[in-house]
Amino acid sequence: MNNTQNSWPDWQPRSIAIKRLRPRTFIHQCTDIEGLDNALTEGPAPIYLGFDATADSLHVGSLVPVMMMRNLQRAGHKPIILVGGGTSRIGDPSFRKDSRPMLSDADIQRNIDGIRKVFGKFLTFGDGPTDAVLVNNAEWLDELNYIDMLRDIGRHFSINRMIGFDNVKTRLENQQNLSFLEFNYMILQAYDFLELHRRFGCVAQLGGSDQWANIINGVDLVRKITGKTVFGLTTPLLTTATGAKMGKTADGAVWVNDDRLPAFDYWQFWRNCADEDVGRFLRIFTDLNLETIEDLEALRGSEINSAKKVLASHATALNHGMEAALKAERAAQDVFEGSATGNDLPVINIDLDDSRNGLSLADLLVLSGLSKTKSEGRRLIRGGGARLDGSVISDEKAVLGPDILFAGSSLRLSAGRKRHALIQVG
């Protein structure tokens, strides 16, 4: 059987897990879908998903395999979340034009502390047979003896085959540097699978479609060393209806951690998705049942906005909690559908002493996070995209004085029609 989902139109799975994943469009490729399906009918199966610590938060595109793992756990299987304390020292070269910046041990630990917060929101951790566990590959990679690694593991890898993988071939064909350090990455990731198979009986690795080559290497290594069959499973590379990579916007990454992106802005990201994306996103990023999703995606015209609000609230509730989701929904209703200032908007507090001599509108845009720099703020103002309590301010040199920024004053500052903050003076 071919390894892509489009090649299985008439095949019917037996396991609850595959029956759950397939209609929600999680599955893109599998090394042996029938073999994996059989393995998932034999009781709780340990399955792993790995993340290198390249940033202190995940973005929403990274949530696709996390949500896939959430569904596998709900179907009775055991998630293993692997953080790359060891592999982050090298960096995955997959489909990159250049090498990743080298991170210090302190950077890696700070990033691990940031991303591990995400997993507890979507998975249940504990000591039970289907409870998730979190492990760090530095635990074994830091202890590797290089000569033993070459002799026992390296001999199972063919250079001819490795340079044939798309992620390597692209770099070489474009005459882009691929360091020996990076070339070893795929060996180390394969070794992770072997180690997790030995320690936990791990039977499958999940990942995005860009990890396919690395996953295949791990499946092959486990087979060659142990004689056991394990499986690889990837999610599709998710793009929006406009062709943009999921989790990326004109303003940058849509971060999952609330210290990177407030709940209101997270809610707004989902609310502002394209009509064509609503059904897909409901299937992947919420726990709603398929019958409800089919009803919502069938809505047309202005009614589709109701489905977008359901998507926004359910996706936000999973990540930020139900209370934050309800606050974000109320704030959006205040801003876009009513005349209130929106008390649940992200709040920026301005000290009264700082406002006595006036503050420029460009400064306030930067302080509120609505623009990254003053020059970007001025361009926004010149273009008519800056609003104060709904009124356009087109003077890029505009300064707000004590007549506006007085003790107790509260102003809604907007960048375009989608991003807002509440300025409070105290």
TrEMBL record:
Any one Gene Ontology molecular-function term assigned to this protein's record: ATP binding
Sequence motif 'KMSKS' region, residues: 245-249
Reaction equations catalysed: tRNA(Tyr) + L-tyrosine + ATP = L-tyrosyl-tRNA(Tyr) + AMP + diphosphate + H(+)
Domain of life assignment: Bacteria
Coiled coil: none
Keyword terms, alphabetized: Aminoacyl-tRNA synthetase, ATP-binding, Cytoplasm, Ligase, Nucleotide-binding, Protein biosynthesis, RNA-binding
Predominant place of localization: cytoplasm
GO biological process, one term: tyrosyl-tRNA aminoacylation
Cytoplasm listed as a keyword: yes
Pfam family, any one: tRNA-synt_1b
Location in or out of the cell: Cytoplasm
Function according to Swiss-Prot or TrEMBL: Catalyzes the attachment of tyrosine to tRNA(Tyr) in a two-step reaction: tyrosine is first activated by ATP to form Tyr-AMP and then transferred to the acceptor end of tRNA(Tyr).
Name recorded for this polypeptide: Tyrosine--tRNA ligase
